[in-house]
Design the sequence.
């Protein structure tokens, strides 16, 4: 039995899903293909992804393929209650609501896993952690799963290295059509959408500090520059730091950047990126937010415990006054700014990412019992198929190699 906030909200959610469906041609193609093929007939799929309209359409595509869906969100502040209602109204099982407490969030994760899934689609690793730690008796039923994010992949690699991962997981985030586009262009646009709509402040002429220069950090920096900001990158990897310099950005330690930054965006997937000593030297009015995964990159817990006073400065912005009189503003409690304070990545970007998710799930179903590795890269043919579908949807054609060219590149004569 589903657990959502309010079923009467379903019409609003349906409108959102219809909009993204119209702008996601790859998933529409797979919806038709899966509907004819039924690759998931008789299978249960447990899914924990940010529960908004694009995710909802992915769920319907998987359901069209015959899957019995059990759905929850991967962040308490990114679930949209009207979208959850639309999925339940359409006959799917959903356990999630906006603003859930930690206890409620974990209970929803548990309810989804308790269904006994055959395939897991995860975003951050919470479902995988839950089944291994709380429901090991259900592990033998699992064919495998797919992981959406860098943070989740790091957790999986750690489990695998320790010999704790008990079923195959496809590293969706590592696919070229995922991290090149989703992480760079999707994060780059959606982060600034979330910041701009929440703060209503100008970016041009401001100092933007981006912590982390992976694919997401590259996108956030690029878009900040396009909005007219002076961009400062902080890094722990000397090679990425050099890349940031050559891309035209300043590079410095966070402690130094903290003194001059106006906006701070963490995109590392690590914890304790902005901490006490950084807060103490920030300008009054500085805005901090996170676009990594968990709410531990900006040390909001320290701010809560050590501020002189705190108040809601604006919807989704909590202000903290420090003992020195300076005010630090935090968007969305330090949770993902692009989802907790926005609608997430653009539909056209998630069309590619979720097409890879759907096709990877089908790959698992087709290869049940044949996979001998616990960590699996997205098959190259899946990556290329998604790219070819996307080009076709754009009405573009590219050249192909002749047999002679293939022989030449292979070292032949």
Sequence:
């Amino acid at each position: 039995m589903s657990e959502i906030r309010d079923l009467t909200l379903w019409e609003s959610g349906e409108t959102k899903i219809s909009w993204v469906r119209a702008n996601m041609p790859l998933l529409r193609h797979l919806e038709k293909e899966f509907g004819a093929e039924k690759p998931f007939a008789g299978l249960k799929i447990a899914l924990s992804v940010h529960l908004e309209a694009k995710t909802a359409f992915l769920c319907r595509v998987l359901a069209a393929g015959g899957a019995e869906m059990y759905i929850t969100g991967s962040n308490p502040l990114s679930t949209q209650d009207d979208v959850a209602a639309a999925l339940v109204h359409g006959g799917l099982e959903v356990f999630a609501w906006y603003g859930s407490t930690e206890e409620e969030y974990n209970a929803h994760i548990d309810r989804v896993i308790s269904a006994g899934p055959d395939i897991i689609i995860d975003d951050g690793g919470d479902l995988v952690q839950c089944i291994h730690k709380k429901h090991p008796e259900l592990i033998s039923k699992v064919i495998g799963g797919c992981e959406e994010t860098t943070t989740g992949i790091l957790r999986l690699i750690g489990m695998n290295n320790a010999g704790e991962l008990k079923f195959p997981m496809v590293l969706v985030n590592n696919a070229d059509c995922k991290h090149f586009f989703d992480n760079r262009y999707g994060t780059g646009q959606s982060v600034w959408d979330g910041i701009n709509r929440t703060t209503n402040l100008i970016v041009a002429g401001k100092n933007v500090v981006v912590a982390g220069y992976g694919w997401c950090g590259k996108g956030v920096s690029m878009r900040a520059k396009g909005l007219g900001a002076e961009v400062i990158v902080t890094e722990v990897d000397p090679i990425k730091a050099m890349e940031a310099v050559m891309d035209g950005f300043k590079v410095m330690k966070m402690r130094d950047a903290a003194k001059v930054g106006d906006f701070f965006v963490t995109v590392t997937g690590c914890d304790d990126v902005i901490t006490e000593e950084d807060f103490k030297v920030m300008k009054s009015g500085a805005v901090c937010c996170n676009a990594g995964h968990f709410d531990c990159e900006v040390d909001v817990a320290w701010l809560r415990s050590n501020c002189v006073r705190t108040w809601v400065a604006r919807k989704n912005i909590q202000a903290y006054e420090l003992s020195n009189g300076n005010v630090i503003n935090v968007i969305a409690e330090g949770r993902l700014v692009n989802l907790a304070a926005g609608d997430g990545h653009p539909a056209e970007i998630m069309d590619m990412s979720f097409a890879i998710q759907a096709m990877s799930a089908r790959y698992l179903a087709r290869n049940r019992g044949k996979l001998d590795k616990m960590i699996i890269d997205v098959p190259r043919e899946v990556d290329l198929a998604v790219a070819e579908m996307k080009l076709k949807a754009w009405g573009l054609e590219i050249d192909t190699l002749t047999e002679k060219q293939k022989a030449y590149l292979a070292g032949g004569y």
Q: What stands out?
A: Residues 186-335 form a domain with the Rossmann fold fold (CATH 3.40.50.720). The longest helix spans residues 176-199. The longest strand covers residues 309-314.
